[in-house]
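Appendix B. Raw example, untouched.
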Amino acid sequence: MRDDILSLVYSAIEEVDPLTTEGKPIERKPEARLLGGDNGVDSLTFVNLVVAIEEHVHKTFGKSVVLVDEENMVAEEHPFRTIGTMADYVEKVMNKA
């Protein structure tokens, strides 16, 4: 299942990359940084990516999910650090849905 979700996240990245404000593509590997640190994406890119992932989950798996809420954004170890942690979190949210 994780490989399917990583593929879904990579598809969402392909959709969002042309919209990035800095024009820098997001790396397609689990350890690629999303939020935090110097190599993370800007906030607009992050929002576009989250929306794209939610839409891909709905199209692919027929599940409606909400990935961002106040609780996970303020957590010390939020799930949006890397592509891999995002994929793990998407799987967790999908299993709850």
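End of appendix B.
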